[in-house]
Write a structure and sequence with these properties.
heterodimer; A: 44% helix; 18% strand; globular; B: alpha/beta; Rossmann fold; 2 domains; 10 helices
Chain lengths: 132, 267
């Protein structure tokens, strides 16, 4: 069964090279990647997770807004009974912030220079909640 | 599993979107439960008007659907959209990128959009599309739109699953010999020339001049649109409505003929 993943960029951040590289890389790893492009709202990201019934949500943010957006997304997923979704993140996220975000429910954070295979292996090892 | 399906169907019927999504995943994964699901929802089937949108890559299918959905919503009707993009023949992976054109509808409760990969099917759709259309129909969408993989000539599978098939073209695609060929152009119900601002009058005249010679079905209407500029969408909606009325809401004789034809196509 193909793993379904949404690659999303919340907020005002125009840096999409990383998100595009990851979308293509995970495609080549045999995953089904839904790409919604730049400047997504929290609500739109969560609604897409629901309608697409994704296994994984990959958040990419390089603007510094991660402490604002990521907790909101985690909360809204939970409110909608979607907390089984594996949420990972990437971009420019300082280590201290990363620690806090991981406590809140972001499963892993991948910074610049990460190999695609590291991310795809992490997804394969940690994706779950496939039952109805 | 039976218990789970009953629970999911009940929840989906009461409007829980994640339950509908989960049912779509089950049918997409070709689970052994498809027959059970279809049986459970069968009393709720047959209400939606199902439209197939097909055509070559980059002709503007997704953008056209985006605008068509807005028009349908303005009439007070709800919409389900299934968009199919190709799976890699090498890895099985896919980038599903149709949804990105339909962003204005993400927060609209009356619109449900689901992306699917073709998963090894080469007829323009995936194996799960039939059951997925049934699910969106059963869960109360007034109109169900299916966008095929970008195809041009032979991908006619969609015509067997919907009431009406719209074939989308754009200027610059070839001369009249292309329109003489058999295949999707021959069996579609409406032809749209999108990106008409690039100069479509010559193309439309050529298409109309050729399809009129066909004898396998009645001559299709040709509609010019500029999806990006929101031009011609109301007109397209009008043609879709007319076909719906002719086929589905017209006299019972016509309706039963249509349904018989539809069933025959499904076999």
């Amino acid at each position: 069964m193909a793993i379904r993943i949404l690659i999303a960029k919340p907020g005002l951040d125009g840096h999409d090279r990383g998100a595009i590289a990851l979308a293509m890389g995970l495609r080549d790893q045999g995953m089904e990647v839904i790409y919604t492009g730049l400047r997504q709202t929290v609500e739109n990201i969560v609604r897409t997770c629901i309608q697409e019934d994704v296994d994984v949500l990959g958040l990419s943010l390089l603007s510094g807004g991660h402490n604002h957006y990521f907790p909101k997304i985690l909360n809204l997923l939970k409110e909608n009974g979607m907390d089984r979704v594996l949420v990972i993140a990437g971009g420019i996220i300082p280590e201290e912030d990363g620690k806090n975000l991981k406590k809140m429910g972001i499963k892993e954070i991948f910074g610049p220079g990460t190999q695609i295979s590291e991310i795809s292996n992490f997804i394969r090892e940690n994706v779950g909640g496939q039952g109805t | 599993m039976k218990h789970d399906i009953d629970r999911l169907v009940t929840a989906a019927l009461s409007g829980v979107e994640s339950s509908l999504s989960r049912l779509l995943t089950i049918v997409e994964n070709d689970d052994k439960d498809v027959a059970e699901i279809l049986k459970t929802i069968s009393p709720n089937l047959g209400k939606a008007y199902c439209i197939g949108i097909t055509g070559s890559p980059g002709t503007g299918k997704s953008t056209l659907i985006d605008k068509l959905v807005a028009t349908i919503r303005s009439k007070g009707l709800t919409v389900g959209v299934i968009c199919i993009d190709p799976s890699s023949p090498v890895t099985g992976g896919a980038v599903l990128g149709d949804r990105i054109r339909m962003e204005q509808h993400y927060s609209d409760d009356g619109v449900f959009i689901r992306s699917m990969a073709s998963r090894g099917n080469y007829g323009g759709i995936s194996k799960a599309v039939g059951a997925s259309v049934a699910l969106l129909d059963a869960f109360g969408k007034d109109v169900v739109i299916v966008e095929t993989v970008g195809i041009g000539q032979e991908g006619i599978d969609i015509t067997k699953l919907v009431h009406v098939t719209v074939f989308v073209m754009a200027p610059g695609g070839g001369d009249s010999v292309q329109f003489m060929k058999a295949g999707i152009l021959e069996v579609s119900d409406i032809i749209v020339v999108n990106k008409a601002d690039l100069g479509a009058d010559g193309l439309v005249a050529e298409i109309e001049g050729i399809v009129a010679f066909g004898t396998t079905k009645s001559t299709q209407p040709v509609v010019q649109t500029q999806a990006l500029n929101d031009v011609g969408i109301e007109e397209l909606y009008g043609v879709l409505e007319k076909q719906r009325n002719d086929y589905l809401l017209g006299d019972t004789q016509k309706r039963s003929e249509f349904m018989a034809e539809h069933r025959k196509k499904k076999d």
